[in-house]
């Protein structure tokens, strides 16, 4: 696969997001790099600094013409950027997530469903081997 093919694949992944059975690399200014594996209504998040995977539930809500991605994280978790505790759905525009996608690959490439992270992810460093 050429670099040009990878760009096309990333563009297609952004447009199609969210797709069940896909691992996404997402980068945002507040969170840095995150890896998220999604299945139908369930997700597993490899978050910077965490020593374990955060399990999550997701759904899409439509408000007028806007599509929102809504996440439910365990009540014991805290979103360090906005300070919100888990235990209730928090929604954000899907377009914003799509814009933050760096790469996507089919399957649970880091075995996040196991609950274990391969190593502690650094906020400003993408995981090795993603997208290769």
Distance between the termini: 9 Å
Largest sheet: 7 strands, antiparallel
Mean pLDDT across residues: 90
Poorly predicted runs are 1-7
Percent of sequence in beta strands:
35-45%
Radius of gyration: 14 Å
Number of domains as seen in the coordinates: 1
Please give the share of residues in helix: 10-25%
Structural class, from secondary structure content? alpha+beta
Q: Tell me how many strands there are.
A: 7
Total helices: the number is 2
Q: Using the alpha-carbon principal axes, give the shape.
A: globular
Order of neighbouring strands in the sheet with most strands = 6-5-4-3-2-1-7
Order of helices and strands: HEEEEEEHE
Brief characterization of the structure:
This protein is 16% helix and 36% strand. By secondary structure, it is of the alpha+beta class. The chain has a seven-stranded antiparallel β-sheet with strand order 6-5-4-3-2-1-7.
């Amino acid at each position: 696969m050429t670099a040009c093919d990878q760009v096309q694949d990333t563009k297609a992944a952004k447009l199609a997001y969210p797709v069940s059975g896909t691992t996404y690399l997402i980068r945002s200014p507040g969170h840095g790099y995150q890896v998220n594996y999604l299945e139908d209504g369930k997700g597993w998040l490899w978050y910077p600094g965490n020593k374990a995977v955060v399990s999550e539930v997701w759904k899409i809500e439509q408000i007028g013409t806007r599509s929102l991605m809504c996440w439910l994280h365990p009540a014991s978790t805290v979103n360090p950027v906005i300070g919100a505790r888990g235990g209730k759905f928090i929604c954000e525009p899907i377009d914003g997530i799509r814009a933050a996608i760096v790469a996507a690959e089919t399957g649970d490439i880091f075995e996040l469903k196991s609950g274990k992270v391969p190593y502690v992810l650094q906020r400003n460093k993408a995981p090795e081997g993603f997208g290769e």
